[in-house]
Give the backbone structure.
Amino acid sequence: MTPLLCLLLAQATTWREVAPLLDRHCNGCHRAGQVGPFDFTTYDGASAYAPEIARYVLGNKMPPWSAKPSPIPFSNSRALPEGVTAKLLNWINTGTKPGTPLPLPRRNPQWNLGPPDLVLSQPTEHTVSAEKTVDIVTFDISPKELGTTQSPRHFDALEFRPSNRNILHHAILRIKGQPIAAWAMCDNGIRLPRGIAWQLPQNAPLTVELHYFKRNLRAARDLTRIALYFTKRKPTRTASLLEITKLDIRIPAGANLHSEKTTFTLPARLQLHAVLPVFQLLAAELHLRQQGTEDYFLFIHPFEHHVMTSYQLARPLFLPKASKLEAEAIYDNSTQNQYNPHQKLREVRFGENGLDETFRIWLTVSQ
Ligand code: HEC
């Protein structure tokens, strides 16, 4: 053990040291109005859940981040540094001592990315009916509202804020049917690398596609708002979204390590910036690599449907035209999978009703 670690463990950690750690690693999600169920911003809020915090941190279940270390680092990696885990556990194991923390950086109460340039809203509150698990809702935002009647605009960051965090699972933005941007429930906000932005072309509406996923049989309502952050200058590259999908999947009843693979050919010379895998309750692992390379640049295990997030590459992956990406998903359709929705096991195919499975990977690329 390093002398520093010995020193840390010898002293009881107090709230003074723990508050900034929770603020940095947890409270993007664990505060009022965000996706995490409890509020860890106060001593009372965090200490009330100390045993759960210890269990989830020790079990590597929190913060939600299942990507294995990759040749390309992720800018939004949430993996906890070892020292942080040790301090949190020490605070809990020595009786959650109080303390007065130094003032923390102020957070915008609504938006993780700060005050937006434009806030779009779902026109009316949507109700997901009691019997539905999955519900997909679309609506258009007019060019007038986007401010694009005279000229195009560009935005390089976005954030979704559902009024009901329990049911909005992910969302896709489209222009004239073409997907441009993707967001998932655990993305606190997404910012593209400098010089890259999404384009809102002149006079085209923006279609918002909300994918709800409900985990119980009670009707639930939501009204989602979306923050956009415009760029001052015209970007050097425009971002868009590509989809890797495999429709002919067949997952045998009871199979606990069933693999489905597909190869995707790049339509042009592109840079890859982010990956958002969208699967349902049977997916257990996802592997993604460039054909001809040994290492996976994205290896997710275990895949967790209920804490879905996108993976933002810290530096772009350059993909020549016609290069190939190999994607493999491993599914668990056995009773060992605690999320398996089928009490009576059956073969599962592609479908989006919550009982079937998908194979869909959204790639944020720029050209
Ligand atoms: C990116 C968002 C995000 C971050 C960051 C995050 N969490 Fe969570 N956390 C969630 C979500 C979402 C859930 C609910 C998961 C579910 O419903 O299955 C959750 C659940 C939990 C639970 C279980 C609650 C229960 O129902 O018993 C604990 C404990 C927890 N988180 C602790 C932490 C701690 C500690 C950190 C920081 C070290 C952290 N989380 C960071 C999103 C997050």
Notes: Residues 63 and 78 are 6 Å apart (CA to CA).
